[in-house]
Amino acid sequence: MVLEGVEKIYPGGTSPAVSQLDMKIPQGEIVMLIGPSGCGKTTTLKMINRLIEPTAGRILLNGKDVTHVNGDLLRREIGYVIQQGGLFPHFSIADNIGVVPKMLGWDKQRIRERADELLHLVGLEPSQFRDRYPRQLSGGQQQRVGVARALAADPPVMLMDEPFGAIDPITRDRLQDEFLEIQRTVGKTIAFVTHDLQEAVKLGDKIAVFATGKLEQYADPETVLTRP
Ligand code: ADP
Ligand code: ADP
């Protein structure tokens, strides 16, 4: 995935939330977007999955310019995980995981099988969890379902916005390990927002350091640690 000269000025905004952003996320790698609150990390993810439209620049997925395509068309290309799962409270766990497959017209049987397969992948026993509702799950379990939901239609790209940010440190550590293990199996191209340097170093193939709307540094974790 490639971002070229990407910029976002929000309506009524005086200075750009993101400007002159050039960034490459190599296929199958995890790039960690790190930086203080308000520096444009979330805005960058939202431009990639077209929840918002860039005011300038280009975004290429697999060499295809997706800068101005309808966001709905990207649902099968891009999985999105946000803080606290973002699960629909009135949908069962299986129905939450099935949201995108349903949109894509999969039949019920296939959606059910996929939900079970993914629950198993993220370490939740399908028979125990598929018919529960999000409020009946711990924070860590909800995040696991959030990851499963994002993986449902097997998109090549995953965007993760502080997925473990609201989780206690011990569970977070376990989720990070599980996430790396899952990534070894699924090999997605991942942009992962965090404000936690330790998390960035642990999970990232590369780290993109943001500062007030600009990319300040882009390097492997070792370089970021030794040459801050
Ligand atoms: P981060 O994810 O790094 O915390 P954001 O991308 O959320 O940063 O925000 C970047 C800048 O854009 C901030 O100054 C923020 O106030 C502003 N911003 C974010 N969303 C909106 C919006 N919907 N309308 C106007 N300004 C926004
Ligand atoms: P974790 O250690 O994974 O964060 P918790 O300690 O929060 O989990 O929860 C322990 C167990 O209780 C979990 O298996 C969870 O699914 C279950 N649980 C928590 N809240 C509810 C609820 N409201 N209804 C049913 N089961 C629940």
UniProtKB/TrEMBL annotation:
Its signal peptide is none
Q: What is this protein called?
A: ABC transporter ATP-binding protein
Any one Gene Ontology molecular-function term assigned to this protein's record: ATP binding
- Tell me the ranges covered by the ABC transporter domain, including all copies: 1-228
What keywords appear on the UniProt entry? ATP-binding, CBS domain, Nucleotide-binding, Transport
Which positions, given as ranges, span the membrane?
A: none
So what family is this one in? Answer: Belongs to the ABC transporter superfamily.
Where on the tree of life does the source sit, at the highest rank? Bacteria
